[in-house]
Amino acid sequence: MFFYTVRFPTKQLIKILIVDLAELGTTTTATTTSATTVTTTSVTTVTTSAVTTTTTSAITTSATITTTIPSTSGVYWNTTNKRYAGTGSSGNASNQLSSPTGISIDSNNNLYVTDSGNFRIMQYVPGASTGIKVAGSGYGTALDQLSSGTRYTYLDSSQNIYISDTDNNRILRWTIGDTIGTIVAGGVTYGTSLYQIYYPYGVWVDSNSNVFVAEYQNHRLTRWASGATTGVLIAGVTGSSGKSNDEKPI
């Protein structure tokens, strides 16, 4: 940026602002959250009798900062609720639930509810107001029974239900129509050995029928191959909670 002084016959001093447009372009590329627009036009006409200078400068600065909240696709909650299962009152009738603790949905939109207080798994077809019992016949340790701490379920592509029978320290696989389940991980007694599980919560099954179990009290994740009687430690340290020194908080 340069300043030149021109002396007129009237002895008035006029400062002519000449802007190096290349320099201006370099300056305006560094932008911040404020929007700045600079427009400068400089025209100089020289004749034998006089010097005529015309300078037009317009500088507009906007300090408005606009914060955009990212949009989220999908519907996660509807302010108008719809009841899919239960009556709102605890009970053991086919249209009632008691302390439900988990749900799963199959490819046909059938809803499966872990009816923990009634020691059963209920299936609700779309539009139904009553459920169908598909697993469990009461409280106990037999293969047709579930514990009071039954938690979560997983449905595979063959409509087998894998049940996290928490207080019985086992995972049961129940095929629709069967009257008893099959133990696929753990057993009745809890422990820290790899043939045992202790207070299972989450359960997930891959396409090869490997069963993955999140053991709440053992602080570990184990994998059980199809037909296996012992699991394989996948994550965690058996019986020891905590984090490593190099773990960074999220």
From TrEMBL:
Q: Which keywords label this protein?
A: Repeat
Keyword Nucleotidyltransferase attached: no
**Which terms in the Gene Ontology molecular function aspect does this entry carry?**
zinc ion binding
Question: Pfam families given for it?
Answer: NHL
- What PROSITE patterns does its record include? NHL
- Where would I find the NHL repeats? 88-127
Name listed for the protein in its UniProt record: NHL repeat containing protein
